[in-house]
Design goal:
The complex is a heterotrimer. Chain A is of the alpha+beta class. Chain A has one helix at about 60-75, and strands at about 35-40, 50-55, 90-95, 95-100, 120-125. In chain C, about 20% of the residues lie in helices and about 40% in strands. Chain C has 2 helices and 7 strands. The chains are: A alpha+beta, B mainly alpha, C alpha+beta.
Amino acid sequence: MGTLADTLTEVPPIKSIGEYDFPSRSAQELYGDDLLVHVWWKGNPWFVAAATFRAPAAMPWADFWNGLFVPYHEEDPDFDAAKGWEQFDWFLAVNREEHPVTIDPARTLSELGVTHKGVLGFRTRA
Amino acid sequence: MTIAPKAARKLTMKQRYSALTRDLDWEPSYVPAEELFPYTRFEGIKIHDWSKWEDPFRLTVDAYAKYQAEKDKRLYAVLDGFAQSQGHLSLTDASYLNAMKLFLQGVTPLEYQAHRNFAYLSRHLNGPGPRFASLCQSLDEMRHAQTEIHTLSNYNKYYSGFHDYLHMHDRVWYLSVPKSFFDDALSAGPFEFLIAIGFSFEYLLTNLLFVPFMSGASFNGDLPTMTFGFSAQSDESRHMTLGLEAIKFLLEQDEDNVPIVQHWIDKWFWRGYRVTALVAQMLDYMLPRKVMSWKEAFELYFEQQMLGGLFQDLAFYGIRPPRDVEKAIQEKDYISHQAYWILYQFSHAAAFTTSVPSDEHLDWLEEQYPDTFPTYRKLWDKERKNVENGGRHFVRGLPQLCQVCQIPMGFTEADDPFIQCQRETIFEGERYNFCSDGCKNIFDHEPVKFRQSWLPVHQIYQGNCGAADLPGVLQWYGMQPGDGGEYLGSVDHENWLAWHDMAETTGGN
Amino acid sequence: MTTTTPAARPVGVDIQESESNRAVIEAIEADNPEATVRHMPGMVRVQVPGKLVINRESVEERLGREWETHEFQLAIISYFGHIKEWDDDEIVIAWDH
């Protein structure tokens, strides 16, 4: 995917009195075997921002779709869950880039390439 | 006017200022200056001569006490009159108070924090001039916190959402925006704080917060708020001066200070600007009777006065306008629409209410924003149908937050009104998300600081916010039924209608 | 951003609209012939190219009593420019560079 490379090569020093190095308050370890997953309906302003879900890394796609995705997105009256995930093109969003994802309902989120605080984007298929 | 005619005075203002402020300073002899003032070197700022600090107000402690007392007397006379005459019934509408709820929850606690940090500066800056100016500002900020609480406590007797604002400030998702902004400044060194709050916030941006907004209070029948606002703002002109003197002083003391100051201006302009998104939506959406649009206020108070005036002055020192200013200028056409749309669909988890703007209001927005609003108006058309079908739009989950400004990531790319901006950085193996290049740039300079951000959504998912379900989180927030959600049919709305029916039937005696 | 000289760039003050401040506003208008005045709810905005001066004597003349320049702190809401001078007799707002 090329998205896990450290994009910050050189960290500028913090000017502080004494040592200054504290851990992240959102680190993956704080969520056990789960991930925070951002799900972004690109180009649909009905949802003002991408949603954040907490889901097991080992959750199969079909469970994610039925259990988390659909109940949330049904809030848009134009969303038709019956058309399934096939109605959308899926991708991992990295800044302005889109890295396509091929959905397989049997595969887990992590097998699909979803990472902690990664952005899983989708758009209505043209 | 209760101020007595002045007695004949032997000293001029300049002499009095010199005698009462500068002459009270001394050179330390028991300990070295570095030990007495331990915090003014680690940021890399070089100061050679503290006596060069100017205080154009030439304020002395007696004059300070005299005029502040007079300001308070005037304010409390207005508060009493308003309370005694049931002034709250003459507001334009109860929905107006949503802006005041946001103000009390989001801004008043910052006044108190400013009080604390200026008290620290009044002890720890080396020069007597900036120490005394900081002391005055510290007292001012305390006064602002108190007068705002007193003023708005009258509404707490009749309306929801005004209780528990301090408790909420520390916990609630949208209040983490102003809170984290100020915490960022409080945890910086004294010079960065001066540029962050004294200069970037007070001089560059508070006009946008106070002036059109308080004018809006006046226009909506809220005389107490207008009075505390203008009363606070009269101190603000001194604070602006402190901020401006601070920046000129740092720039004049050593040219090595210039790049450090430039970086702080870049950072703190964007930090402050993002917080003003809350003000933008107040102006355009929360005031029932409008004074001016966000766009007009931004043009007047920022583009004309600051870019057209101040930054031309600062160019002399090699300072350029803030790095991401072009994006802010571009956003003036739509930021209020996006900010209100965020608050609209999450107000079931807030201590204020929102509603679909009326036809008249939508038309006004279209007049103010002819190029952009027609696009956003489509959202309201869709939501109207939704409401007619009984499905008022509240999001059924939690939003992605920006790691730096902590606002739900609803701000869009410059070239598309409906594509939210997604930025990220990976630092030591962990991914961080940002709403804009401005916020990403800030993180990339201080990743170790900003990875500690207490992001409400992430904390809820860690189980640190009382419960895993919405009612449990709202209880932990200290919210009560009627505080949030839809305005039409809310407790405040029902009460407002009942009080006004009553006023009509008993009004003719 | 076009560059302008400090003599042309506007400076100004926002003043609370009140009975006693009317004398201050009138004094500013009289002493700064190029001043433009804009009324907004609850406040008045006075703008002048280059330099704005408030003279104690002009204010006192209109107020009919003594007025010390410190009293301007009760009137001012905000300003733009740089406070170049604030002494017993006058307040001057202008840009430096």
